[in-house]
Write a structure and sequence with these properties.
- The protein has 251 residues and is an alpha/beta fold.
- The protein has ten helices and twelve strands.
- Helix 1 runs parallel beside helix 2.
């Protein structure tokens, strides 16, 4: 049985880790390199770094930060934000990233998923999907959740899988930062529809929420930010609780 993964997410803005609620009202959560080092030491399975303002500002992800993180951690880490070409990905991998996460650029030019998968392998390509419910339908949003589209979450997820994505990182904007639990119904449908791993994101507030997203949401990995950044849930304590609930994790 594949083990479930616990993934701290570091949203980066102006070189600092930040965290908000429903994608707004950001507050400082510390130095990303220091946080990365701590998570690697304290049992995180992977890390995700999202340069949340790169797309809006029309620039690439900060390579210097990626280099410094790679020097400090011995676990896989994914980098996203402002990635729109093979050259962008090549530069990030050269600096030490293991995977890349693409979002807005994939929606604007879906062929990018094919190109990256063919060049670097599907295991390197994570497609992040930010979505919220509008009139009962899950609709994809772009540019850090600031631009709504008419695209359906489930149809888009199926398309990027067919194009070669290796994983889906689904963030429910309705649940983000609320600490009320993950969007487990949507996650379970994604898991049923797709054959690639689904990373749950948005809504973690306590240990039971993680148990639920693995048992009810059928997620392959759970990503969270504030509960880790502000010391509310230690990663090791979380993993021990998951193990007690018969959820396979790496301890």
């Amino acid at each position: 049985m594949l083990t479930k993964r616990i993934i701290p997410c570091l949203d980066i803005k102006n070189g600092r880790t930040v965290k908000g609620v429903n994608f707004v009202d950001l507050r400082d959560a510390g130095d990303p390199v220091e946080l990365a080092k701590q998570y690697a030491e304290f049992g995180a399975d992977e890390l995700v770094f999202l340069d949340i303002s790169a797309t809006l500002e029309g620039r690439a992800t900060t390579l210097d930060m990626v280099l410094r993180v790679a020097e400090q951690v011995n676990i896989p880490f994914t980098v996203g934000g402002g990635i729109s070409s093979i050259a962008d990905v090549d530069a990030l991998l050269q600096c030490g990233a293991d995977k890349v996460s693409i979002n807005s650029s994939a929606v604007k030019r879906p062929e990018l998923v094919n190109e990256l998968s063919k060049k670097f392998g599907s295991q390197c390509v994570v497609v992040a999907i930010d979505a919220k419910q509008i009139d009962g339908q899950w609709k994809v949003h772009l540019a850090g959740g600031s631009i709504p589209t008419k695209m359906d979450l489930f149809e888009w997820a199926k398309e990027v899988e067919q194009r070669g994505a290796g994983e889906i990182l689904f963030t429910s904007m309705d649940h983000d930062g609320t600490k009320n639990g993950f969007a487990n119904k949507a996650l379970a449908k994604l898991s049923l529809d797709l054959n690639i791993p689904i990373i749950a994101s948005g809504g973690a507030g306590n240990i039971q929420h993680f148990i639920d997203t693995f048992q009810l949401g059928k997620a392959d990995a759970a990503l969270a930010a504030s509960v880790f950044h502000f010391g509310e849930i230690p990663v090791l304590k979380l993993k021990e609780a998951l193990k007690k609930n018969d959820i396979e994790v790496r301890l």
